[in-house]
Automatic annotation (TrEMBL):
Stated name of the protein: Alkanesulfonate monooxygenase SsuD/methylene tetrahydromethanopterin reductase-like flavin-dependent oxidoreductase (Luciferase family)
Residue ranges crossing the lipid bilayer per the database entry: none
Keyword Ribonucleoprotein: no
Top-level taxonomic group: Bacteria
Pfam families in UniProt: Bac_luciferase
Translocase is among the record's keywords: no
Keywords, alphabetical: Flavoprotein, FMN, Monooxygenase, Oxidoreductase
Entry similarity comment: Belongs to the NtaA/SnaA/DszA monooxygenase family.
Annotated source species: Brachybacterium sacelli
Domain Luciferase-like: 62-408
């Protein structure tokens, strides 16, 4: 960064923290090929599983009740959210080879739910996470196109490859693909789906399936469902750079978000696409209160409820790959070595394989240095993993405006810590402050999800 660029960046309203991360000009603060729009789009992510949403408060909804989905989507639409997301889980999660009792409910089928939600809403996008490993491309493309048609062009597909073996045991094909093969397979899968949506005649012979057919449904108002990609590895990023409209990243911290934007921009340019044609929406959690002090107290309360002693031990067991139930959650991190070969995972993102040894050593040192117990450590790590925005309404609004002006992200995919009421304060207090700062839409830009994400027509 040259000092001459500082005044220009300061003029664009960036905070000192954001300006310090900028390396370019006011037009291109992060990468010379990427011009920020300065606008944010929000998505609401109904996770169903994971400890990020608290299900044991009296005000918590039911994980599978229609009322939970309907009331959350209505609030999101009131807040002009671009999208409503559902994850996918095709079998109860496993933890150390048995069903994970802390993920008490499974996830209902996303396409069925979104079809019902299409009738209960007018503008919000409806995004289904669906994996490419166990579906068949034409069948899935056809069902997603149906959702796109009946919702008036509001459908999205969050493309995942599924990173666990137990899901595969649930399918006739069985097994599961290794990491590199999963993305090769995904690429061929999406190509066939795209041909279907273009109404072309399809003749595909691949390693996993053969298809002879042709598109049999008309194009929707937005042409085809918007393609989201959730996978953060280099192979996942390359795949996204070639195919996705939106990347759903796990990088919520400002610095990590800036690095991710650079990495994606380079890959998108290398793939011969305009960087503006790929939006980045990190997953995030937002905890708000009227004042900083109240917000701090609320964060502690939320964390205590999200990560209790059992969750803390389970988190460590993912990385240690062994039974740690004999350790005191109030005591220091386990002084035993991880079982590297057993370092399986309850949740995909934690998979560490051979790195477990290095990671557990670093964690032990970090917790000892900070004087943290297992419980305190797990609470801090869970928060950090979520890309959390906490503070007063004004502080968080200002921080998000920074992200928007810097062009680090194009929005957030927000997982509410409480359902159904967890978006209320975001919609009532944060959204108006973002609108005042000119970084969030006052109204839906159009009728389709593509338009509301600021994507060019196909
Ligand atoms: C933000 C995010 C959300 C995801 N949601 C799901 C999901 O709902 N269901 C699922 O099976 N996998 C999900 N995945 C995991 C994907 O299956 C993905 O293939 C996995 O992260 C491995 O890809 P990677 O190594 O490129 O990160 C998600 C991943 C990310 C990063």
């Amino acid at each position: 960064m040259t000092t001459a660029q500082f005044p220009t960046l300061a003029d664009s309203g960036l905070s000192a923290e954001a300006a310090a991360l900028a390396t370019g000009t006011a037009e291109h603060p992060i990468h010379s090929d990427h011009t920020p729009t300065g606008q944010l789009a929000f998505g609401a992510f109904f996770q169903g599983v994971n400890s990020s949403t608290i299900w044991r408060l009296p005000s918590s909804g039911d994980q599978v009740a229609w009322e939970s989905f309907e009331s959350l989507v209505r609030t999101a639409e009131r807040g002009k959210f671009a999208a409503f997301f559902l994850g996918e889980g095709l079998r109860l999660r496993e933890h150390r080879k048995v069903p994970f009792e802390l993920d008490v409910a499974g996830r209902p089928d996303a396409q069925t739910l979104l079809a019902a939600l299409a009738a209960a809403t007018d503008r919000i996008g409806l995004v289904a996470t669906q994996n490419t490993t166990y579906n068949d491309p034409v069948d899935l493309a056809r069902r997603l196109q149906t959702l796109d048609l009946l919702s008036g062009g509001r459908a999205g597909w969050n493309i995942v490859t599924t990173d666990n073996a137990w899901t595969g045991e649930n399918f006739r094909r069985g097994g599961y693909l290794d990491h590199a093969d999963r993305y090769l397979h995904a690429e061929a899968f999406v190509e066939v789906a795209e041909q279907y949506w273009r109404g072309e005649s399809i003749s595909h012979d691949g390693a996993h399936y053969s298809v002879r057919t042709q598109g049999d449904l008309p194009a929707s108002a937005q042409g085809r469902p918007v393609l989201f990609q959730a996978g953060a590895s280099p192979a996942g990023q390359d795949f996204a750079a070639r195919t996705a409209d939106v990347i759903f990243s796990p990088h919520g911290g400002l610095e990590a978000a800036v690095d991710f934007r650079r990495s994606i921009t380079e890959r998108v340019v290398a793939a011969g696409r305009d960087p503006g044609s790929v939006k980045i929406l990190p997953g995030a959690e937002i905890i708000l209160a009227p004042t900083e002090a109240e917000a701090e107290e609320k964060v502690r309360w939320v964390r205590d409820l999200q990560v209790g002693p059992e969750q803390a031990i389970a988190l460590l067991e993912q990385y240690w790959g062994r039974d740690l139930s004999g350790f005191d959650p109030e005591g220091p991190l386990p002084d035993v070595a991880p079982e590297v070969s057993e370092s399986g995972v309850t949740r995909g993102a934690g998979f560490q394989f051979a790195k477990a040894e290095e990671l557990t050593r670093t964690w032990r040192e970090e917790a000892a240095q900070k004087g943290q117990s297992i419980l305190e450590f797990a609470r801090e790590k869970s928060g950090a993993r979520r890309g959390t925005f906490t503070g007063s309404y004004d502080t968080v609004a200002e921080r998000l405006a920074d992200f928007a002006r810097l062009g680090a992200i194009d929005g957030l995919n927000i997982t509410p810590w409480l359902i159904p009421s967890g978006l209320d304060d975001i919609v009532d207090h944060l959204v108006p402050r973002l609108q005042e700062r000119g970084v969030y839409p006052a109204e839906y830009a159009g009728a389709t999800l593509r338009e509301n994400l600021g994507l060019d027509p196909l």
